[in-house]
Specification:
Layout lengths: L1 H11 L6 E3 L6 E6 H9 L15 H7 L11 E10 L6 E3 L2 H6 L7 H25 L10 E3 H13 L3 E3 L8 H5 L18 E4 L3 E7 L5 H7 L8 H20 L12 E3 L5 E3 L9 H8 L6 H7 L8 H11 L5 H11 L17 E2 L6 E2 L6 H6 L1 H17 L19 H7 L6 H7 L13 H7 L7 H4 L23 H12 L2 H14 L6 H6 L5 H4 L39 H14 L14 H10 L10 H10 L5 H4 L19 H11 L13 H16 L18 H20 L13 H14 L6 H11 L5 H4 L26 H5 L12 H13 L5 H19 L4 H16 L4 H34 L13 H11 L1 H13 L11 H13 L5 H18 L44 H6 L8 H5 L5 H8 L8 H5 L11 H10 L4 H16 L3 H47 L26 H20 L2 H15 L9 H20 L2 H23 L10 H50 L14 E5 L5 E5 L3 H7 L2 H15 L2 H5 L3 H15 L36 E3 L2 E3 L41 H10 L15 E6 L5 E6 L5 E6 L4 E5 L14 E3 ...
Parallel strand pairs: 6-7
Antiparallel strand pairs: 1-2, 2-3, 3-8, 4-5, 7-8, 9-10, 11-12, 13-14, 15-16, 17-44, 18-19, 19-20, 20-21, 22-23, 23-24, 24-25, 26-27, 27-28, 28-29, 30-31, 31-32, 32-33, 34-35, 35-36, 36-37, 38-39, 39-40, 40-41, 42-43, 43-44
């Protein structure tokens, strides 16, 4: 390719250093700047000069051109330049116009296809007749033709859609585009062709510039074979893409050339593109002549061409040449490296040669070539350890996907680090720092050859045999590399080292090294034995790479012949006398003293050399000769040296160098016995040569797959036509496909092997290894390569040397014309059976690739388009096809702009096709990613809709959803994603909080109005939210969806003027007020204030929202339930903003903030609604275990961080501190609290007392070490907030019952932290202030609830502790203690004497914090409410009453100056107008003075006036406490699902159990009865979501029952649906999970819809003689139902398709009886049939083969279940329960039931739950080998009446369903 490099340098002005020839030598790779390329593409002009990379050495630039290097300098890229010489394009091409027109369009119909085929066949036969009978007599050829150059240019412009640029200076760059304007399309005609960057024409050349292809099909097949393994679909799909590309090329008249695997570009997702082989256009006849470059005389070549088209001819000649010593070791090894694809100066894949000398010994010795360098370096022990450890990890992981844990010895052959260390002296510092060590440490690099060889586990590189400069350093601070002392110079070392490589000792063992590095010892048991298992070959990696370990040979490599070992120099002696022997022995001993094998001359007897060779062990035999060899090397030629050294006559023994030598004594014995017979020397083996010849032949035939093909010559010459080129392309495609199939056998093909050689090799392989060809490709290879056509027929009439194509296709074959792309792609042609879905899949991938996504609206558009296409693919797809489409779906689910939409649109169809196991494996991670992606809000609410969560539960399985996804779904409630931009998002939440109690009418109206509005603005997002929930009838039957807490029984009236909110009242207060909360956050975002400004004139009373809207959770009346549902969905966010818009518009705030708030609001609403739906769906135990536990944990995180402790900005900047003032954390926690309270509404008070309160006491329990961290601090705030919520909902009796507990476990621990003088709050005073305010609010709430008398009795301590700190602070000031700033390591502990006589420890660093908390403002804010609530009693309860009163008055004077006359009147709290029983916003006022307890609330008489007492004040603070009764007391509505009786007992037990409890415990608690059947229950089946179950009965009906908790365990439940289409007893009912349909059987099979009860399909046994006796449904993703009939035939039907799918005869020769039971393995791979005779048959569902049949039991088989791990559990009437492993002969366990046989069983994890007719429930462990059950329970008659007929386990809820003979099903725990 030198000519191409020269012309590129000259005409395209690219520096020669930036160019490199590719391996296949058909194009040049260039490193160019992106700017240069941009100018070329966009400006359509060839730039004058291509810039050079600045600051890089030539070495680095050459490295950038290497294939394995992917990281390029910024602004630079690689391109491929293909060049063609115009001189070679001076032939003409016949244009086959008919051919081009014929196949331009695809035939749409079968008729069209047949018509085309008929016409084509007719034309071809006519042409053949013409050629045979007419042409020999006519001189004229009538075919239109054209110069090849013009035809090529025309086709290129058509295919690539761009015109040629001229490099000649005269023409401008515009003119060519004008000439060929009709071709300027701007994009390639087919996406499966690698697009061109530019087409350039100069005076002598044509250049095609293509983008650089990183990975080709060759790489996938060679280095990542697992990528295509076990999947015909992937190979077929690649073929499909190549054919599409070839079709586009041929339609444009472009030949793709003799393409090879390297011409097909692939990426990780296996999208393949074709890169035509343009070089084949250069005079096609030329290539044949030059293909045998080593044969000089062309005429001679023509002669022998008949014989020498043999496969692998070059390698064959080299192998034979090397064996006979004609080819040097160096050249042979370099050729093998080239075959393995190793590339010089590629740091990751450089050629390797063996280290032949061990430099670590003084004079050096030969290295053992039978062991790899890695093994010599690491030692056997370490390699065994590595292998064993990785093996154990692999087994433990169950053959897991972790590739590092595959058992192996060797991790790498020659790593890039080793390469750079070897060449450190010649490599620039920057490169070394990048690859070896980031810090430049020249001394760390090995300084000598000895150190280098000792350090590296890798082999040597060729430079140490050829290049003396490698030792010379270019770095000033790194010395040259030291060489051994026995060499005088670097040149001398290279000379000697090379001589040693060629030496006899190395030569005779080199084949072992070849076997280890390139040969059969790389795989299989040979690799394990040699400790040579290479990670790259066994890890089954599927990532693409362009380097790795390649196995060239799978047969032992023949040995090198070392001189005439079998023709002896002397005749063998007749054995001499004993005297002679002794003499000779002495002579031996003398001789070996010198120890130099070189001295041994060739005429010495063989006995001597035998003796010498045995003196040392095998490894060190005669290798101390280095010095002598070194000196000899200087005088004589290296090649001559080996011939001197004949160490042994055993050179031909195939494995060892010296056979074990027998001692002389033994030898004597033999000679005496044998008398004077002639004995041959031991080393002599007369048949050695024959054996070697056999081995060589075996290697050539089996290892290189070589034969000889005789070929006839043809005399006729025809003009080259396009059709010939196209046929050649198709043949090349056939060769490529065969090369993929036989990839492992053809690694020995040279990279640029001519096509004829490749063809003969694969043709040979295909003939001899037909069984290895996958069935789908067999017909194609036969058609494209004519495998079975005899050679003489195939090559007859063609002159091979002058033909472009390999052979002539027959004119008609199997009725079809010669193959062409459009014919092969046609769905009507069966040559290649492409699956039906390929066409749609191809379109899907093109859609995916063609749209580049800039923003999320486009992302949504793209996903929507793909969603419309995906159903067409998935309806026919196979698991192999899923593997192709899955990477695209996964990348859509992980890319930020499409993640949400991909989950919403694509999850359901893809997960349905995958089945739960694979969906969990592949889709779980992207789903978690979509939920956790914090920076992306738009459209997120899709993921939180209940219908999407229902899909998740159905497709992933309930258990997987709960354990893996639920946490991530719930996370949204605390707005975790808002952490980056809290201020902005919190303001949205503030409006959420204050929109609390709108009237339902306005709410509904605005909600509707806005939803219309939004749909037009936000890309119609709402069109798709109305997805129907799978279980839409689950949760609204009893109207238990508590949404928005509004009574509508009272008439709605406008609010009273007095009931204005606190915000409005404080409008009037003076501007000098300063709020403590606002000091802390003076610089807050102004929009936050605006968020709360609207409360001033909107029609709602803020008192509810001040108390965090406890009334939110009230039950709605039935009529309102539907309405509030719509309110609380995604639209209700707009309600807030609508009423808000007037204020917001005035200041024109940032719109993006507004939309983000809107999004967040929608998100939270949707999520809350979904959590409510989910908690109703899951039932009480799972809800409290999974949802409530998680929400309680989340509650703490709502208060973590300094920002969350700040008070919400109020209407009025300076309003005083106030007991009910919420902090920011309260906004965040509101959705969580709402959901927690909703669960309490749903399931009753026990949630509050048994689950929430214990968790609160855990949160506030004193921490170890008495230190607070930020989490604990947040926990305290969360605990107090939640306690407040709980107290509001507790009934009076419950409150009084647990008041002492609340006091002891909650109040006092919190107060001990709050008032501590030694424990500081991590977030400083603000956190303590917030806690203080919350605490006083909580205590005052309890005071309100329990009344004055009870306060004295129960809360005295709490109040005393709370107010005591004000005194402590005074005492500190009195004692003159001053605040200190904390310094690490110093202690500031002091004790302070209190006024009440106690001594308190005090941390001085906390004084400032305490001062900021317990100051006058806090006294004012807390004392006044208490004095109002409990009156004068407070003076008795609080000892430091005077001090606090004084502080209060000080603050009041400061804030409310006295001159405000208008306000001097006392605020008497009862004087306000008393509203009717309930108004829309305001309940009756309830103060405490003169109050009367009425029912559950304090009723204030209208006329009572309270005389002013000392406790009067002028502040509106107390106004808070006069709010309606909803703020301190609400009833939990009685729900139908409330926990009581047995349900409560069961629930209390369950909430203490771990979610992953492995054992099933049966307590015999009766929870529910399901009565409705009039006959015995025959089968019970829970649905996958565990919220419904099915029962089939003798009464010919199937009923669907809800599994929700009702009542106290005694209630009977009505069925939700009854299916009555059966005519006989229903003995089987099951669910087809993947299509959500029900299958039931009464002798005929009915398939029906589980929601409507409508029959979808029935299958009656056509012949009444063979009724159906057993049925089973296949697990998802399969949709089949299998059933066995009494004639022992197993049939499969798919409800979506007509007719039978399969029919398998099971027991043909065994009289096994009737099929009693069928069980399907969880992966759907096998079906087990149990017979009435006790026989069991195992069938493979994929092949239909019976894997095994065995007599398992002596009696009738009653029931069977199949479990994970190929386990089958069967029970029989012979009283046994047996556990089998599918293919093992003996059972794993056998249990015997003493009294009754087990006729009902189900599985729970690794346990079997069994039932007998005696009503006994047994639990057996599959892991335990004891024959008795772990637990047996007899059902009591009060819990279970009748006889047990069937049972089923609900695994997530851990409950049992028991069917009885009286028609009742019972649910027991």
């Amino acid at each position: 390719m030198e000519w191409l490099i020269k012309s590129i340098k000259k005409e395209l002005n690219i520096d020669q250093n930036q160019l490199a020839v590719c391996e296949s030598e058909n194009h040049v790779v260039a490193l160019v700047s992106q700017k240069w390329l941009y100018n070329l593409k966009e400006r359509r002009a060839v730039p004058v000069q291509c810039p050079r990379p600045e600051g890089f050495s030539c070495v680095e630039i050459q490295t950038f051109l290497q294939r394995s290097v992917q990281k390029l300098p910024v602004g630079w890229t690689r391109i491929e330049i293909h060049g063609l010489r115009k001189t070679r394009l001076d032939y003409t091409v016949a244009l086959n116009t008919g051919f081009l027109q014929e196949h331009s369009g695809d035939s749409e119909s079968l008729i069209g296809f047949m018509r085309d085929v008929a016409q084509q066949n007719y034309k071809n036969m006519w042409n053949k007749a013409c050629r045979t009978y007419v042409e020999p007599y006519e001189n004229l050829t009538k075919v239109p033709s054209m110069p090849a150059l013009d035809a090529l240019k025309l086709s290129l412009e058509k295919v690539y859609g761009c015109s040629f640029l001229q490099t000649t200076k005269t023409t401008t760059s515009v003119s060519p585009s004008k000439e060929s304007a009709n071709f300027v399309v701007g994009s390639p005609s087919c996406p499966n062709i690698v697009p061109a960057d530019a087409l350039i024409e100069s005076a002598d050349m044509i250049y095609i510039l293509l983008p650089y292809v990183q990975y080709s099909l060759y790489d996938a097949v060679t280095f990542s074979p697992a990528k295509l393994a076990n999947s015909h679909a992937k190979v077929l799909f690649i073929l499909y893409n190549i054919l599409q590309a070839m079709k586009a090329c041929h339609q444009a008249g472009l030949s793709s050339g003799a393409i090879s695997l390297g011409n097909v570009a692939v990426d990780e997702k296996l999208c393949s593109q074709l890169r035509p082989n343009f070089i084949d256009y250069e005079t096609p006849f030329q290539s044949v002549v030059s293909s045998k470059a080593h044969s000089t005389d062309i005429a001679e070549q023509m002669e022998c061409s008949q014989l020498c088209t043999s496969c692998n001819s070059e390698l064959k000649e080299l192998v034979i040449g090397w064996i006979h010593g004609k080819v040097s070791n160096f050249d042979y090894l370099m050729y093998l490296n080239k075959l393995a694809g190793r590339r010089g100066s590629d740091p990751n894949y450089h050629p390797v040669l063996p280290w032949v000398v061990d430099f670590t010994t003084k004079n050096g010795k030969f290295r053992d070539l039978k062991k790899s360098k890695f093994r010599i370096n690491k030692g056997d022990k370490q390699l065994e350890f590595t292998y064993e450890m990785t093996k154990q990890a692999f087994v433990a992981g169950g053959g897991s996907s972790d590739q590092l844990h595959v058992p192996h010895h060797i991790s790498d052959v020659l790593s890039d680090i080793t390469y750079y260390v070897y060449k450190a002296r010649r490599t620039p510092k920057a490169v070394l720092c990048h690859h070896v060590r980031s810090q430049w440490e020249p001394n760390e690099y090995p300084a000598s050859m000895e150190r280098m060889q000792g350090w590296t586990p890798d082999e040597c590189i060729p430079e140490f045999y050829t290049d003396p400069t490698i030792f010379k350093s270019i770095h000033s601070d790194m010395p040259d590399l030291d060489i051994p002392s026995w060499c005088s110079s670097y040149e001398d070392f290279i000379h000697v080292h090379r001589a040693l490589l060629e030496s006899r000792d190395v030569s005779q063992d080199l084949h072992h090294w070849i076997d280890l590095t390139f040969g059969y010892k790389l795989t299989g048991k040979n690799a394990v034995k040699e400790k040579n298992v290479c990670l790259h070959l066994v890890d089954n990696h599927t990532n693409l790479t362009c380097y790795g370990v390649v196995q060239l040979f799978d047969q032992p490599h023949p040995k090198r012949l070392m001189g005439p070992g079998y023709s002896l120099f002397e005749a063998p002696n007749i054995v001499p006398s004993k005297h002679n022997i002794v003499e000779m022995t002495a002579c031996d001993d003398q001789d070996t003293v010198s120890g130099l094998v070189l001295e041994t001359t060739s005429c010495e007897s063989h006995w001597t050399s035998e003796k010498v060779s045995s003196l040392d062990d095998d490894l060190e035999q005669g290798t101390e000769a280095l010095d002598a060899l070194g000196s000899a090397g200087k005088n004589s030629e290296p090649a001559a040296i080996p011939s001197l050294q004949i160490t042994s006559s055993s050179n031909f023994s195939s494995e060892s160098r010296a056979p074990p030598v027998k001692s002389n004594r033994q030898y004597k014995g033999v000679s005496d016995e044998n008398g004077g017979k002639i004995l041959l020397p031991e080393g002599f083996n007369p048949i050695q040569a024959l054996e070697e010849l056999e081995k060589l032949d075996n290697f050539l035939v089996r290892g290189l797959h070589s034969t000889i093909l005789p070929v006839k010559e043809s005399e006729k010459k025809l003009q080259l036509s396009l059709l010939d080129l196209f046929e050649r392309d198709i043949q090349a495609l056939g060769v490529i496909m065969a090369e993929i199939i036989f990839a492992s056998k053809i690694h020995t093909t040279a990279p640029k092997a001519p096509m004829k050689e490749r063809y003969s090799l694969v043709r040979n392989l295909s003939k001899h290894h037909v069984k290895e060809i996958p069935t789908p490709l067999l017909q194609m290879l036969e058609s494209l390569l004519q495998i079975h056509t005899p050679d003489d027929m195939l090559f007859s009439g063609t002159n091979i040397e002058e033909q472009v194509k390999l052979f002539e296709f027959p004119y008609i074959s199997n009725g079809l014309p010669p193959p062409c792309p459009s014919q092969l792609l046609s769905p009507f042609c069966s040559t290649i059976p492409f699956p039906k879905y390929f066409l749609n899949l191809h379109t899907f991938i093109l859609t995916y690739q063609s749209r580049r996504i800039e923003d999320d609206s486009q992302g949504r558009e793209l996903v929507f388009q793909l969603w419309q296409q995906i159903d067409g693919i998935l309806c026919d797809i196979t698991p192999e096809g899923l593997e192709i489409i899955l990477p695209f779906v996964l990348s859509l689910m992980t890319e930020q702009s499409t993640a949400v939409y991909a989950a919403w649109y694509l999850f359901e169809p893809v997960a349905k096709a995958l089945g739960p196991k694979n969906a969990n494996k592949y889709l779980m991670k992207p789903l978690i990613g979509a939920y956790e992606n914090p920076s992306y809000l738009h459209g997120r609410f899709y993921l939180y809709t209940d219908c999407f969560v229902a899909q998740l539960i159905v497709r992933l399985g309930l258990q997987a959803f709960l354990s893996n996804l639920l946490n991530h779904v719930l996370q949204i409630l605390v707005g975790v994603e808002s952490s980056g931009d809290e201020g902005k998002l919190l303001s949205g939440a503030a409006e959420d909080e204050e929109s609390g109690g709108e009237s339902p009418v306005s709410c509904d109206f605005e909600g509707r109005h806005n939803s219309v509005d939004r749909s037009s603005s936000s890309h119609e997002l709402l069109d798709y939210t109305s997805g129907v929930s799978f279980h839409d009838q689950v949760y609204l039957a009893e109207n238990e969806d508590f949404q928005s807490g509004l009574y509508v029984s009272d008439p709605l009236q406008p609010p009273e003027p007095e009931s204005l909110s606190l915000g409005r009242l404080s409008d009037k207060s003076s501007a000098s007020e300063v709020s403590l909360g606002d000091e802390r956050m003076a610089d807050n975002d102004s929009i936050r204030e605006k968020g709360s400004m609207k409360s001033g004139d909107s029609s709602q009373d803020l008192k509810q929202s001040e108390e965090s809207e406890e009334e939110e959770e009230r039950d709605c009346s039935p009529g309102l339930s539907e309405l509030t549902l719509s309110v609380n969905t995604d639209t209700s966010a707009d309600t807030v903003l609508a009423s808000d818009s007037r204020e917001l518009e005035e200041d024109e705030p940032d719109l993006t903030n507004q939309t983000e708030e809107k999004e967040l609001k929608i998100l939270l609403d949707t999520a809350c609604k979904m959590v409510r739906w989910l908690s109703a769906k899951l039932g009480p135990t799972v809800t409290s275990r999974c949802i409530a536990r998680n929400l309680l944990r989340l509650l703490t995180s709502c208060y973590v961080g300094h920002q969350r402790h700040q008070f919400l900005s109020n209407m009025e900047e300076n309003s005083p501190l106030n007991v009910k003032r919420p902090v920011y954390g309260d906004q965040v926690s509101k959705p969580v609290l709402d959901c927690l309270m909703h669960m309490a509404h749903l399931y009753g008070e026990p949630f509050l007392t048994y689950q929430y309160l214990p968790y609160i006491s855990y949160l506030v329990a004193p921490s170890s070490g008495c230190r607070l961290n930020s989490r604990k601090e947040a926990g305290l705030l969360a605990a107090v907030t939640l306690t407040q919520k709980i107290i509001i909902y507790l009934s009076d009796t419950t409150l009084m019952d647990i008041l002492a507990k609340i006091n002891q476990d909650v109040l006092l621990p919190v107060l001990s932290f709050l008032t501590s003088t030694t424990v500081g709050f991590p977030s400083g005073p603000q956190a303590r202030v917030a806690l203080c305010v919350k605490c006083s609010s909580l205590i005052s709430l309890i005071c309100l609830r329990i009344g004055r008398e009870m306060v004295q009795q129960h809360l005295g301590d709490a109040l005393r502790i709370f107010f005591n700190n004000f005194s402590v602070l005074q005492d500190i000031h009195k004692q003159g203690l001053v605040a200190e700033t904390p310094n690490t390591g110093e202690s500031y502990m002091q004790s302070v004497l209190c006024s009440d006589g106690r001594t308190l420890p005090l941390d001085l660093t906390l004084i400032e914090e305490l001062e900021k908390v317990f100051n006058a403002e806090m006294a004012y804010a807390t004392f006044i409410p208490f004095s109002c609530l409990i009156g004068d009693v407070i003076a008795q309860l609080v000892p430091n009453y005077d001090l606090i009163w004084r502080l209060t008055m000080i603050y009041q004077e400061a804030v409310f100056p006295k001159e405000a006359d208008s306000r001097t009147q006392t605020f008497d709290y009862v004087g306000r107008v008393h509203a009717p029983a309930y108004r829309s916003e305001e309940d009756t006022q309830s103060g405490t003075f003169g109050s009367v307890m009425v029912g559950n609330r304090i009723q204030v008489p209208k006329d009572s006036q309270q005389p002013p007492s000392r406790a009067f004040c002028r502040s509106p603070v107390v106004e808070n406490f006069q709010s309606d009764e909803n703020t301190f007391k609400q009833d939990l509505q009685r729900s139908a699902h409330g926990l009581c009786g047995n349900w409560l007992a069961y629930w209390q037990y369950e909430i203490g159990v771990s979610q992953q409890e492995p054992h099933f415990y049966f307590h015999q608690i009766k929870l529910q009865s399901f009565a409705g059947h009039s006959g015995a229950i025959k089968c019970v089946k829970p649905l996958s979501g565990e919220d419904f179950f099915l029962s089939g009965s003798k009464d010919k009906t199937v009923r669907l029952w809800p599994l929700y908790n009702y009542g106290d365990g005694t209630r009977d439940i009505e069925p939700r649906l009854t299916y009555t289409e059966h005519k006989k007893t229903v003995f089987y009912v099951g669910q087809l999970e993947s299509v959500q349909q029900i299958v039931s059987c009464d002798g005929g099979v009915c398939i029906w819809d589980q929601y409507t009860g409508k029959t979808i399909r029935t299958y009656e046994a056509g012949d009444t003689k063979v009724p159906i006796t057993a049925v089973a449904t296949m697990p998802p993703p399969y949709c089949s139902v299998t059933f066995g009939s009494s004639d022992s035939v197993l049939r499969f039907i798919d409800p979506r398709k007509p007719g039978l799918q399969h029919e398998f005869k099971l027991a043909s020769n065994v009289n096994a009886g009737l099929i009693r039971y069928l069980a399907v393995s969880p992966n759907g791979r096998s079906v087990v049939a149990g017979y009435s005779s006790g026989f069991i048959i195992l069938l493979d569902t994929r092949t239909g083969l019976v894997l095994r049949g065995w007599p398992a039991h002596e009696g009738d088989i009653l029931q069977m279940k199949a479990a994970d791990g190929n386990i089958i559990v069967s029970s029989s009437s012979d009283h046994s329960l047996t556990v089998w492993k599918e293919l093992e002969q003996k059972p794993l366990h056998q249990f015997k039931s003493n009294s009754d046989p087990i006729h009902a069983l189900d599985l729970y994890g690794s346990e079997v739950i069994t039932g007998t007719v005696a009503n006994k429930i047994g639990i057996y462990s599959l892991l335990d080998s004891s024959t008795q059950p772990n637990i047996t329970t007899k059902l009591s008659s009060e819990n279970f009446r009748g006889t047990l007929t069937n049972l089923a386990v609900l695994p997530t809820k851990r409950l049992l369903l028991l069917g009885s003979d009286n028609g009742v099903v019972r649910l027991l725990a």
